[in-house]
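Usage

Read records sequentially. Each one opens with the input sequence:
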Amino acid sequence: MSLVLNVEPHWISPYVFACFVTLREKGLAFDARVLESSKNETRTSDYLDQTVTGRVPSLIHDGFGLGESSAIIEYLEDTFPDPPVLPRGVRDRARCRQLMSWLRSDETAKIREERSTATMFYDRAREPLSKDAAAAATKLCEVTRRVLQPGRSSIFDAWAIVDSELAFLLHRLILNGDPVPDDVRAWAETQWQRPTVQAFVQLERPKHA
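and closes with the structure output:
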């Protein structure tokens, strides 16, 4: 079996993060291949034929290529179901998909724009959040509180990949010193210490231009 995860050069994409954590959680051995879109390495005919959309991250499994992190996670869950990274129950899985879609939606775009992942792994942001970004951050914290239950460390009965994805987005704020309620911060920081998450966080990265 051959698994290759194609990634961007600095290993700071939240979508690369989600795929990396999924592969690690499932204990799957994989090779990582860095592709630079600025050098048109994602525009070769072979890569486009394999992945269709020509983006990263992408997964190549025994010659089958797939892009878009959500699709990659679903494929890995279907192909290698144990251990799971998505809830088993139909309704919990639907809620998980809802949250994953929302984290990628326009409603969180201002946070992603003003607190780029470069500010997490390289230089911190210098400007305060704009009014729109602050409103998005407030809603992010409100949504987090709605899905957490007292005495439970994960959103569902067991950890799911959306726990790590939500913690990643919250850390855009936490690492830049933006206001985050204490209970939400504590939950996100606990998630941040998960071994597979720390494996990504502690990766050696090239200098950022």
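Summary fields computed downstream for this record:
- The longest strand covers residues 3-7.
- The chain has two domains: 3-84, 90-194.
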